[in-house]
Amino acid sequence: MVRSLLCLSVILILQSCIPIRIAPTIDDYKITKGKKFKRSLSKRQMFIFEDPKDAEHFYNYINTKYQLGHIDVYDDIPFVIDRQQYFFAWYEIEIANKTLHLAPAMVDVVINGALGNEEFEPYLMESSNNYTRKGNWYIAIEVYSDLEKDCLQSDSLSREVVLKYLSALKKEYLSTQNYNEVVFKN
Fold first, then answer.
1. H or E element: which one contains 44?
2. Residue pLDDT, tens place only, 54-112
3. Using H for helix, E for strand and C for coil, what is the string for 130-143?
4. Number of C-alpha atoms within 13 angstroms, CB side, residue 76?
5. Given CB 3.0 to 4.6 Å as the disulfide criterion, which of 23, 33, 77, 167 pairs with 136?
6. Are 88 and 163 in contact (CB under 8 A)?
């Protein structure tokens, strides 16, 4: 009885997955330093929200809304609030959930050990086939002006009006299907 419970426990452990990284869940939006959210981002404060739409949708939305003609769609996009000009840059980011499956890793260790091959790293690296990846996409927006380098900092004078603007922008993006409609709203 004890032996069969031990075997059952070993089988269950080998069939389990160990989560290595879990992508964050953002209900509405989050204000945080870009580098803290993803290393490749800048050190400025960013307005970050989950993007449930397919790739390039936010690009098409921004390009259409601001009538950019596919020029500088990612950086230095001008907008005006209360006769004050601001600029924003945005980034489309993927953070994948990663899990390590123990059974394939153990089989690899046993086979490589029997063959005298000591390459066990593929199970520990991001490029491994034994990771299941589920992409979570986010839009990160930084805002600056001629007067302030970071308009989303907690001590920024324009933080509240910029947050209202970005929140409305996010809401419009998520609720709009045909981006040509936003041209007529402006």
1. none
2. 888 999 999 999 999 999 899 999 999 999 999 999 999 988 877 766 666 666 666 66
3. CEEEEEEEEEEEEE
4. 4
5. 23
6. no
Q: What is the distance between the terminal CA atoms of the chain, rounded to a whole angstrom?
A: 73
Per DSSP bridges, beta strands 131-145 and 84-101 are antiparallel
CA gap 180, 139 in Å, rounded: 20
Q: Which residues contact 90 (CB under 8 A, 6 or more apart)?
A: 58, 62, 74, 77, 139, 140, 141, 142
At 61, which amino acid appears?
A: Y
Euclidean distance between CA atoms 157 and 111, whole angstroms: 62
Query: What is the rounded distance in angstroms from the CA atom of residue 59 to the CA atom of residue 72?
Result: 11
Q: Are 152 and 46 in contact (CB under 8 A)?
A: yes
Count of CB atoms situated within 10 Å of the CB of 141? 22
- Distance (Å, whole) CA 26 – CA 87: 24
pTM of the entire predicted model: 0.73
Beta carbons of 102 and 18 less than 8 angstroms apart: yes
Alpha carbons 64 and 73: distance in angstroms, whole number: 10
Q: Rounded to 5 degrees, what angle do the CA atoms 48, 54, 20 make?
A: 60
* Contact of 172 with 49, CB cutoff 8 Å: no
Cβ-contact 66, 79 below 8 angstroms? yes
